[in-house]
Write a structure and sequence with these properties.
By secondary structure, the chain is mostly beta strands. The chain is built from no helices and 22 strands. It has a seven-stranded mixed sheet, with no helix packed on it. A seven-stranded antiparallel sheet has the order 2-3-4-11-6-9-12, with no helix packed on it. A four-stranded antiparallel sheet has the order 5-10-7-8, with no helix packed on it. It comes from Luteimonas viscosa.
Length: 236
């Protein structure tokens, strides 16, 4: 089975300093049809104005990934971890038994555009954790690269769930495939650009969810720009 989530159908919040699009129900946006996809609970596309940010707030038992598209995202948390995330980097924060953190625009002149991703963990109340890693975009041009995995294989970030996050970048006509396991769930999110997935055109912000299917996903880049894609391989 396949479902398509169009960018324009997502929830929308405009708070002045924050413009956010919600793939799944989040905060004041609630749609019973879009409560998540397996353990994938949140994909928010956030644009934060200079000087803006999320003040300190608390989470527990959630794996949180941040993926910067443009600009700089600054982070602080109650474990003492801090950092500034830029394009090509991915941040992992495991809320574990409880953590207080803040995310804010790391520039006083440019907006920051990023994805906030939440994945439910497969265990409860571990110690909080934090890491960020640089992933060279050239190493995922026309091929998949592991960005997050259960064991940190191939230089990926280790997360507390039997889930993998893969990334690729495609120019016009470039093509990648991914083998489907019918016992797993797959969520393909197009961050930027345009692609065709098994005949289905996707624009930036669109996504496709796949469940119970054998075979392959076949993805081809379209248009003049570079398509940036994230593929979540998830347990049911």
């Amino acid at each position: 089975m396949r479902i398509v989530r169009r960018s324009g159908e997502r929830g929308h919040v405009d708070a002045g300093w924050l413009d956010s699009r919600h793939t799944f129900s989040f905060g004041h946006y609630h749609d019973p049809a879009w409560m998540g996809f397996g353990p994938l609970r949140v994909i928010n596309e956030d644009r934060v104005a200079p000087g803006g940010g999320f003040p300190p707030h608390r989470h527990a038992n959630m794996e949180i990934l941040s993926y910067v598209i443009s600009g700089a995202l600054a982070h602080r948390d109650s474990t003492g971890s801090s950092g500034v995330l830029r394009p090509g980097e991915v941040q992992w924060m495991s809320a574990g038994s409880g953590i207080e953190h803040s995310e804010y625009n790391g520039s006083d002149s440019e907006p920051v555009h990023f994805l906030q991703i939440w994945i439910m963990p497969d265990r409860g109340d571990p110690p909080p954790g934090y890491a960020q890693r640089v992933f060279d975009p050239a190493k995922r041009q026309g091929r998949w690269a592991a960005l997050a995995s259960p064991d940190g294989a191939d230089g990926s970030l280790a997360i507390r769930q039997q889930a993998w996050l893969h990334g690729t970048r495609l120019g016009e006509g470039e093509r990648v495939e991914h083998t489907l396991d019918p016992s797993r769930l797959y969520w393909l999110h197009l961050v930027q650009g345009a692609v065709v997935v098994d005949g289905e055109p996707l624009a930036a912000g669109d996504a496709i969810g796949v469940s119970g299917e054998p075979g392959h996903l076949q993805i081809t880049g379209q248009g003049d720009g570079t398509a940036d894609l994230l593929l979540f391989d998830l347990p049911p």
